[in-house]
Design goal:
The chain is mostly helical and 371 residues long. 67% of the residues lie in helices and 5% in strands.
Amino acid sequence: MGLRRKSRSPLVLSHEFVIQNHADAASCLAVGLLLGLMFEITAKYVIIFITVQYNVTHATDDQSEHVHFYDYGPKDIATVFFYMLVAIILHAVIQEYILDKINRRLHLSKTKHSKFNESGQLALFYLLSFTWGASILIAEEFKMNPTSLWKNYHHSRMLFQVKFFYICQIAYWLHALPELYFQKVRKEDIPRQLCYICLYIVHISGAYILNLQHLGLILMVPHYLVELIFHASRLFYFSDENKQKGFTIWALLFMMARLLTLTLSVLTFGFGLAGVENPDFSTADGNFNVLPVRVSCLTAICLTQAWMMWKFINFQLKKWREHIQNQIPKKKITNTKSKPTKRESNRVNFVNGVAKLEDGASLRIRKMKPI
């Protein structure tokens, strides 16, 4: 019986130690903040990290009902930090108890292993975000009234669900930055992932700060649906390479989502907000409806959509070229096998003075009658 070698534990505070125990450290910090609620001295400070801040209560005209709205402010940074810790913990749980077990069964290569983990995490996030965002749109009837995108601007008053949705979105995409280090993402994949993570942070934070929460929510829901279909299709493709129908559905919805995004953006910034422009720019009052801000927002959205379409076209061309290259060798093989040469068909062997074909059949020679 051979002796089992003991694996060396990494040094404390080394790179490997931080990577292996980052989820435990995040969970300890989150639990410590929750324990702070138990003591009166620390509760007033810890509550900033856990609950949504800047509550404003409005009474109806008849004073019979009170409606709770929320503003935004610097204290939201603490709330985002806490839910970023929660996202790190959930990321590690999903990776260890779901994705790693599936990876062991599929026996994927290193490249596919990294992409499978990325798609697995994002598919679950997009599913939850799409369901949550769609439920908010249905409850608040944003989709039924397009004029709500610019009517009564500025939308500095948010309902609880809207504000908590944005807090969780910003926290998730901020947590994705350190996850590039914790998950040991390949160097070739870091620029691509870092690019779309930063785009998400900039656009979602911009909609939150500029009081464009309604527009951002309406644009995020169809976009998340398209991304959900793409990553779900990629997961099925890794399990069975013949399952590629999902990419066709994704391609169609992708172009429709880009068209919807550009249409609503031009309609909102070019016509809607321009008609109710308030020249008094004020960060304190939340009024950003001035021409430079509108032009900057519309330019950023159009450039992002153009970049996404460029990446989409290159991706489709690459797949088309790979499909053609895979079809050419098959045609050559079938052609060489189906057409024998004349020399091979007319080849005759002579055995003991008797002419025979390659299949063993002998040639029958006709006897000539004597004259």
